[in-house]
Specification:
This protein is an all-alpha fold and 237 residues long. The chain contains 7 helices and 2 strands, in the order ααβαααααβ.
């Protein structure tokens, strides 16, 4: 996929290093790599898309509630693109039930994407370019592990963004969407391991789901995008 013309050219060594870092981040998101969450914290701060200056060629999510809506729109674009690819090229051994429900999830994510696009109007960020090169869409394990990563990330992103939304109407809409994302997450988790829909990796001792700040979420989401997102103007509290 063509890179943004405003991005500086990198040497072969730099590109190889960048690919290695991206792969490690991807494996960590899926829970099958050795990097872990501590590794994310140790990554270059610029990777979280929350620096003080808009990098050349980056997509500015904006500020205030519009910024948060664009943040959600970016995540919905990513999920919609993923499930569209899953539906278009089913993995080996997929069952009729899995096909039907994964297609339902695709339709939900596309509906979410289009909802935000329409609601934002001229304030909407452009269509993003995805990078799914690390996903083997022919293999069930690869597809479901990625789906789990996306759904868990999406739920934690909406939970973390709730406190940053000023307009109560937008907050109510976010609540309606995150509940659907949580239903997706539960289904995907049970496809991988029956009964794991609400295990201790996402639910704490108080029965609360995870909440992640935009900086954390953007750093992970960026591993699946060639478009560069920047959230430096998003609300902090």
């Amino acid at each position: 996929m063509k890179k943004d013309s405003l991005q500086p050219e990198r040497t072969g060594v730099q590109m190889a290093h960048a690919k290695d870092v991206s792969r490690k981040k991807f494996l960590s998101v899926l829970g099958i790599g050795g990097l872990g969450l501590a590794g994310f914290a140790a990554c270059n701060r610029d990777d979280d898309g929350m620096g003080s200056t808009l990098p050349p060629g980056s997509v500015d999510l904006g500020k205030g509630d519009i910024g948060i809506l664009n943040y959600a729109y970016a995540l919905e674009q990513l999920e919609a693109a993923f499930y569209t690819k899953v539906a278009a090229s089913p993995y080996s051994g997929i069952t009729a039930a899995e096909t039907a429900l994964l297609t339902d999830i695709r339709d939900h994510e596309v509906a979410h994407r289009e909802f935000f696009k329409k609601a934002l109007g001229t304030a909407a960020i452009p269509a993003l370019n995805v990078n799914f090169s690390a996903i083997d869409f022919a293999k069930r394990d690869s597809v479901l592990a990625t789906a789990k990563a996306f759904e868990d990330l999406g739920v934690s992103a909406y939970n973390g963004a709730g406190a940053l939304i000023a307009d109560k109407n937008y907050l109510a809409l976010a609540g309606k969407i995150v509940s659907v994302e949580a239903r997706h997450a539960a289904y995907i988790r049970d496809l991988i391991s029956n009964g794991s829909f609400a295990d201790s990796t996402v639910i704490d001792a108080n029965g609360m789901d995870q909440a992640k700040a935009p900086a954390h979420v953007l750093m992970i989401a960026q591993s699946f995008l060639t478009s560069k997102l920047w959230g430096g103007n998003l609300p902090k509290s």
